[in-house]
Specification:
A hairpin with a 4-residue loop joins strand 6 and strand 7 (158-160). This protein is elongated. The strands form five sheets. A three-stranded antiparallel beta sheet has the order 1-8-9, with no helix packed on it. By secondary structure, the protein is mostly helical. It is built from nine helices and eleven strands. It is found in: Membrane. GO terms for molecular function: protein-cysteine S-palmitoyltransferase activity.
């Protein structure tokens, strides 16, 4: 048992290496830009001050969102998703999977759970001993079930999920802006230093062009690093913006969630504007700040009618709780007011009339 704990401790310690690496690179970039470029290289005070002001604005927002992503503990399923004591004992004693599923189906009736496994079974975590809420998955690295899990990111040494997904997207956005600003403002001095080095190599170096200090090495390397990170982060940021617009996680993008009527990759999509509000909230003044403002509590989610295009008609949608800027909603609200999901009906018809045009949608329950 002891070697297992020692190994686990070593793994957790080594997991911080990517975070330390990122912080060292950012620390060096701060020194190279502020000291070597702005203070020692740029002669014009107005240019120097304007660069420093904008740089520090991006730097503060980048560091703020980055550490919010790191420090936000992954949200776990609330206690309502744990099996009652009697059912838990019965489940553990039972050896037949079919009988275990019957126990889970009896418990899940009172829960806002609408997704299933690929075989149609209730999703249950044998490690955490909880019924998995919609969009919840078990992270083997964090060794816990994470609400609306997107992926485990080694660069933040944390699971990206419901509690910190907004912070993660902002971290990508501000890191991209940080890199592109550095690359754009360093470019002219990069060209001058590069040209100066070439002139010196042929012995025809003009005098009094730029200070002959070690700053040139920092400036040259700073441009390459900023440009390289910008290109890599740009692709990742674009992908996650697409996910936000579709209201999908990375896991759901590769494997569509399975509902009672079958797989539906757009099962949680509510239209672009509402999908954005699910992550960033209704109050746009908080969108650009790493402050919690997402909808709901992560235990239940707004669903749409299966096979209905959310961009064409908004019918049968339900509200998934209120937005908050103070923190995630309390798990106690997962049952009750937040449960307004679509229920099975024998023959449900919804009619929507707009001027002279009538749209009718009919849903039939499973046989």
């Amino acid at each position: 048992m002891a070697p297992h704990h020692v190994l686990r401790c070593c793994q957790r310690s080594l997991a911080w290496i990517p975070v330390i690496f990122i912080n060292l690179v950012v620390g060096w970039s701060y020194y190279a830009y502020v000291v070597e470029l702005c203070i020692l290289t740029i002669p014009n005070n107005a240019e120097k001050i304007s660069y420093l002001v904008v740089f520090h604005l991006f730097f503060v927002m980048f560091i703020w969102s980055y550490w919010k992503t790191i420090c936000s503990r992954p949200a776990n399923p609330s206690k309502e998703f744990c099996l009652p004591k009697v059912d838990k004992e019965q489940y553990e004693k039972e050896e037949h999977p079919d009988t275990q599923q019957e126990i889970l189906k009896k418990v899940v009736v009172g829960l806002p759970v609408y997704t299933r496994t690929g075989t149609g079974a209730v999703r249950y975590c044998d490690h955490c001993l909880v019924i998995k809420p919609d969009r919840c998955h078990h992270c083997s690295t964090c060794d816990m079930c994470v609400l609306k899990m997107d992926h485990h990111c080694p660069w933040v040494n944390n699971c990206v999920g419901f509690s910190n997904y907004k912070f993660f997207v902002l971290f990508l956005a501000y890191s991209m802006l940080y890199c592109v600003f550095i690359a754009a403002t360093v470019l002219q001095y990069f060209i001058k230093f590069w040209t100066l080095c070439r002139w010196r190599s042929v012995g025809d170096c003009p005098q009094n062009q730029l200070p002959d200090t070690h700053a040139k090495f920092h400036v040259l390397f700073l441009f390459f690093v900023a440009a390289m990170f910008f290109i890599s982060v740009l692709s990742l940021f674009s992908y996650h913006l697409w996910l936000v617009g579709k209201n999908r996680t990375t896991i759901e993008a590769f494997r569509a969630p399975v509902f009672r009527n079958g797989p539906d990759k757009n099962g949680f999509s509510l239209g672009f504007s509402r999908n954005m509000a699910e992550v960033f909230g209704d109050q746009k003044k908080y969108w650009m700040f790493p402050i919690y403002s997402s909808h709901g509590d992560g235990n239940s989610f707004v669903t749409r009618l299966v096979n209905l295009d959310p961009e064409q008609i908004a019918v049968g949608l339900q509200v998934n709780g209120k937005s908050s800027v103070d923190g995630p909603a309390s798990p106690k609200h997962v049952l009750g007011d937040n449960i307004n999901h679509i229920e099975d009906h024998q023959d449900c018809s919804f009619d929507k009339t707009d001027v002279a045009e009538t749209v009718t949608v009919t849903i039939e329950s499973e046989s």
